[in-house]
Design goal:
heterodimer, A: mainly alpha, Non-ribosomal Peptide Synthetase Peptidyl Carrier Protein, Chain A, globular, B: alpha/beta, Rossmann fold, 7 strands, oxidoreductase (chain B), fatty acid metabolism (chain B), lipid metabolism (chain B), KR_dom (chain B)
Amino acid sequence: MSDVADRVKKIVIEHLGVEEAKVAENSSFIDDLGADSLDTVELVMAFEEEFGVEIPDDAAEKILTVQDAISFIEAANAG
Amino acid sequence: MFDLTGKTALITGATGGIGGAIATALHARGATVALSGTRVEKLEELAASLGERAFVTPANLSDADSVAALIPAAEQAMGQVDILVNNAGLTRDTLAMRMKDEDWDAVLRVNLTSSFQLARACLKGMMKRRHGRIISITSIVGVTGNPGQCNYAASKAGLIGMSKSLAAEVASRGITVNCVAPGFIATAMTEVLPDAQKEKLNAGIPMGRMGSSDDIASAVVYLSSDEAGYVTGQTLHVNGGMAMI
């Protein structure tokens, strides 16, 4: 597992207070992990801080799963 | 009770009678304050009279760039904004039939739009800290209406609706969003009214007198305090019983 994936999962586990075993790449923040819409905004803020990237609003709206977040951050870091 | 030591507050429209009283009251309770307004000299006078823990962050809230720069400026001065007091407001009174689009737009932009934009800009920090107070000074006319004030009353009613919606969004993060609605408050503007007219106004108020800026400031102190942490989405009417709603 990549370093980005580990760090993303750590943020999700800490922020949503869910068990590590429940957090998979294809987990949806809202449907699988019990996040509400404000949680998703806070997760995006936490990702921005952790990875030093800027996630514009239109991109943030498309980050619905753990994998979406990992993909965005990896693409941003590569660019 | 109502100790604000260590808290930071941004007050817009701090050069006005009510804004100045709010800034002074929050400061007296121990808060660090950032005073905003358009008249820099008056802001500096007020800051000098308060002494320590007072900063001047001028802004013209009818200008979008100026609004966008205000929260960053206040955060730079004070480190963070714990309490936002949307107090700035203007009137362009005239009958609806004579009201120009510019009169409508100018009032809505300063009284309502800038208040939303400032609140939005504060939220990130408040959400992270799990604490925040957003207090907007609305008006009795936002609830009762008033001839000649379609624009002003709409902007003040808008603040109430905005505050309730925002309150529901961020309540779980320890942020409260409330309004204070003054009735008739004695200011420089009401001072010049003839006695006969003052008496007529007072007759409509069960308390028999106009309120003071300090009456409004006290309500803001309460809503800013930790003691008011369970109060959100509310409008506190401070009007001597003039309208009981």
